[in-house]
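Continuing the series of single-chain predictions for the mutant panel. This is the parent chain; the variants come on the following pages.
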Amino acid sequence: MAAQGSFLPDFCTRTNVFTVVVTAELLAFVLVLAQPDGGSWQALGLVSLLVQWIALGSAALLCYLRPLLARQPGPWAAAVSYVLVLVVTAVVSEGAWWLAGPLTEQGHALFVGRAVAVAAIVALGVLHYLYVQHEWRSRIQAAAEARNEALQARIRPHFLFNSLNTIASMITVAPGRAERLVEDLADLFRATLGRSERLVPLSEELSLVEGYLRMEHERLGERLSVVWRTGSLPGEALIPPLTLQPLFENAVYYGVEPRREGGTLMVTGRVVGEIVLVELVNPLPPATARTPGFGMAQSNVRERLALAFGHQASLEVNEREGVYHVIVRFPYRRGVADENTGS
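Parent structure:
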């Protein structure tokens, strides 16, 4: 994976070293088969040894200098990398001539010159491919982050307006509690708007949910109750901000509030392998009291999960036995350790 600002992969990893070795061996086969007589096993052995030394030497040098190259502009880093590969090729070819020159029919200058020429062509193609791939990934990531910010902007006003309505309904009947709710709302928005990272710890997201539910409990009173079974959730697991809160908002506004007797939200969390699961169950209102409204929030959450985790994350919903069941799945990526906020 490329470092930030660098188009070069990490040649220090075993996977990339294996890729370099296999690619170099395939190149050796091509060079031998391209000879007029089709080459021989001896020629293949010598060419393979030369190509592998050049490939591994170049990879080792680029691995060592990668942090320095990552701080340089892309074209400048590409030019330096290209020159380094040619220098390694010239040095290795020179050493190979003095060790095995008598086994070849080429002159000294021709042997080294052909090796450098082949390296120049191959290195130019490989570095161009890596640079184009890096630019393509950068554009995709920029588009994904822009889309993620647009989705977040669509969610935040919805949460803000509903919260302000809750506070406004209490101003005349309980001004002291309304003031405390304003402070809670300020704390929640300070925590969310102050973060620039695309992913936040799960404990922070659950804390945001708890703050929202406290405000709704002030409005609905005993009609709203919550059962938390999230003690096994890893607080350091990373999740896009404002992923869970819209689902709880749906559960309250479209599940609990329309019921005269209210209802209970059941929140369950666990880790299965490397996947974190958060489940939310809320009662379904009577058929006559149901209103549309689940779709937009769920669509936003799905897109946020897809932008962050791709196909590894999902949002599943279903109705069964008078309840609405929501399951959020996402990969367990570790971040800064925080205490789990679930009780």
